[in-house]
Amino acid sequence: MKKLALHWQIIIGLALGLIYGIVAASNGWGVFTTNWVAPFGTIFMNLLKLIAVPLVLSSLITGVASLSDLKKLSRIGGKTIGIYVGTTAVAVTIGLISVNMLKPGDKVPDQMKEKLQQTYEEDASSRTGSAQKVKGRGPLQPIIDIVPSNFFSSASSNRNMLQVVFVAIFVGIGLIQIPKDKGKPVLDFFEGLNEVVIKLVDFIMLMAPVGVFALIAQTINKVAGDNLAQVLELLGALGYYMIAVILGLIVHAIITYTGLLKLLTKMPLKTFFTGIAPAQLLAFSTSSSGATLPVTMECCEEELGVSEEVSSFVLPLGATINMDGTALYQAVAAVFIAQTLGMDLGIGAQLTIILTAVLASIGTAAVPGAGIIMLVIILEAVGVPTAGIALILGVDRILDMMRTVINVTGDASVAVIVANSEGQLNIPNH
C-alpha cells in the first residue's frame, strides 16, 4: 500500500482538529482539551523549535563555507535581501489598497466597538507596554541586537535567530579565510551535525498529523472558550476586516510570488505549491516561521531542487527578516483601526505606514503574536491611538496563522529565484 503523502497527512490532522475544536467548544470540553489534547501540540512545537537553532547554525556555516568566495557570498546575500525588502514593500502596498477599497472600519457596529475595547483592554495595554520597550531604543539598536555578546545565551532562545544567523555567517567567513586543511575538521563537524538534524526532522514529522490536530484544536479552544456563539458574533463584526487581510494575502501570493516565479524561473507552479505544501500547512498550524524552518528547508531541497548551498543561506535569513504576510496585515490593521476610530489617514500617513512596516518586519521575531507589538509602533508613527489594537485582538490568532503561510511561501519563492539565478536549481520531474 502506498504511503499517504505528508501534506495529505497534515491536511487530515488539520481537518480533524477543526472538527474536534468545534465539537469541544459546543460541548464545554475546554478544560479537557487544555489538559489532554493541547500538550501534544506543545510537544510537537517544542521539538521543531529544539532543532531550529542547530539547523540554522550547521546549515548556514556549511553553506557559507562551501561558497569559498566572499564575492559569491555578497552576491547571493545582496540578491536575497534586495528581493526580500522589495516583496515586503509590495505586500504593504497591496494591504493598503485592499483596506482602502473595502473600508472595513466603517462597517463595525458602535456597540461592538465598545464591547471589543472593553474585552481586550487589558491585553492591549500589555502589548503596548512591550512595544514601548522596543520603541524606546536608539535608531541603531536593531543593528546592535544582531551582534551578540555571548553566543550561547543567544542560541538559548529562538527569538534571537538573527544573532544565530550572524554568528553562523561570521564563522563561515572565517572558514573561507583559513587554509582548507585547517578548517576541514570544523567543517566536517558542522556537516555531520547538519545531517543528524535533517534526520531528526524526518522523525519529528512522523508526529506532524497528531501535532497539527492538537494545535488547531487548542487554537479553537482559546478563541472560542466554551461559547461558540461568541466566536460567530466576533467573526460577524470583524468579517470585513478579515476579508481585507485575507484578500491582500491571496493577491500578494498570486501576483507577487507566482509572477516572480514565472518571470524569473522555469519552475512549474504546480511543482512549487505541491512541494512547499507541508511547510505551508505547518506554518498555518504553528503560526511560527521559525518553528516551520526545518520543514521549509527540507521541502525546498528535496521537493523543489534548491541546492543546499542556497537554501541554507536564503531560508534562515528569510525566517528572520522576510515577513511579507505580517507587514501586509500590519498595514491593513493600522488603517482599519484608524477607520473604526473615525480618523482619516492621508497619503503621507500611508507612505509612513509602508516605510515603518517594511522596517518593522525585518526585526519581527519569527514567533506567534510578535506582529502585534510591531503594529503598536506603526500606529504611533501615524498618530493612531494604540489602545485601538483591542479591536483586532479577538481574531489575531486566526489571521496570524494565515500570514505565517505567506511568510513561509515568500521564503521558498525567493530561495527558488536565487537558486535559479546562481544555476543551482535542479527542478524535479514529478
Tally of contiguous helical segments: 19
Largest sheet: none
- Please mark out the parts with pLDDT under 50 across 5 or more consecutive residues, or reply none: none
CATH first level: Mainly Alpha
Instruction: Report, as a whole number of angstroms, the end-to-end distance.
Output: 20 Å
The appropriate CATH architecture is: Orthogonal Bundle
Determine the CATH topology. Answer: Proton glutamate symport protein
How many domain units?
A: 1
| Proportion of residues in helical segments | over 70%
Estimated share of beta-strand residues: under 5%
Look at the structure and name the CATH superfamily: Sodium:dicarboxylate symporter
What sequence of helices (H) and strands (E) makes up the elements? HHHHHHHHHHHHHHHHHHH
In round numbers, the mean pLDDT is 88
Secondary structure tally: strands? 0
Rg over C-alpha atoms, rounded to the nearest angstrom = 22 Å
Task: Specify the overall morphology.
Answer: globular
Look at the helices and sheets and give the structural class.
mainly alpha
